[in-house]
Amino acid sequence: MTAIGTTSRSSRGRRRVAVAGVALSDCGRVDEATPHALHAQAARRALADSGLDRSLVDGLASAGLGTLAPVEVAEYLGLRPTWVDSTAVGGATWEVMAAHAADAIAAGHAKAVLLVYGSTARADVKARRRTSNLSFGARGPLQFEVPYGHTLVAKYAMAARRHMHRYGTTPEQLAEVAVRARAHAALNPEAMFREPVTVDEVLSGPMIADPFTKLHCCIRSDGGCAVLLVAEEYVPDTAKAPVWVLGTGEHVSHTTMSEWEDFTVSPAAVSGRLAFERAGVTPDDIDVAEIYDAFTYMTLVTLEDLGFCAKGEGGAYFAGKDAVPVNTDGGGLSACHPGMRGLFLLVEAVRQLRGEAPGLQVRRPDGALPRLALASGTGGWFCSSGTVVLGRD
Hints:
The two termini are 14 Å apart. This protein is of the alpha/beta class. The strands form two sheets. It has a nine-stranded mixed beta sheet with strand order 3-2-4-7-1-8-11-10-9, with helices on both faces. It has helices at residues 35-50, 69-77, 93-106, 121-126, 152-167, 171-186, 199-203, 268-279, 296-306, 314-319, 331-334, 342-354; strands at 17-24, 59-61, 83-85, 112-119, 207-209, 212-213, 223-231, 243-252, 288-291, 372-379, 384-392.
């Protein structure tokens, strides 16, 4: 393993990139705010966390809001960026955007890039400003699936069933993911649902899509967050010690289920390998992992595909005492899930490395803070993946 901080772009004539600021907006039940307001609140808090002036920000990454997402959000925030990204690949969007932003900063195309997100997904449904969506639409390739009732949750459920059939993964092992997420959320004052649950309670809940009962599925919340990435020369001016972007990877797999070669392999198998190779580390080096968990199955299969355990062993690995700590804030299953949750993974990973986790704070065996963290986002129905390895000096 390469020493933390020495696997840098500067060694190849490119600048190192650090996370300088992270923050959440108000999350959970936020009935009186607009998505734009949550964007602004998160952005202000992230800038305050960094200690840097907003005038330094010359890059903006945004998706999921308005007709021209980065343009609309930039105007609302009073920014005039010279580098923008609006890549939208579902839940993996923010890890992919972080990769793009880090490359841009390393190459000298930007000084500081703000990644920002906000959504009132829950409040909009409650106020009947929108309805819950069963699918992503019926145009293009999706037209061949939607008429047959092939919903988003059904696609994940099919994949889970295939894994259960091939490897013997049990409903109890899947339920344990939800139980562990709620246990972590119970320690997090920012989490939306904090009441502990049991495996039996998960299994006996209302069936949504076999094998998923209600608690196998992510919650619907409001909320936003922001992450500020900066070039290494601005790190001395930041308010806190830097968290370095060490390696990233991205991959897209399919959009129609008929084009997915193996329901038991997610695109994280590629994005994770690339991120580890570029960071110069292995899964065994990782102290804490933040993994997209719209459904319990995602956690297990992503752990496998990232290399934390062998294929088919995710259930047993997750329940083992030596498993890497996962989704320490409670994840999308219990803490918050306002839509494209990938940016929240980066916020929690940075907080863990800084020792600022509001709930469960991971420690190494010697009592020291974590040195390496991973954030891996998944988009669509295992259609896309972005993985980011972060480390502190």
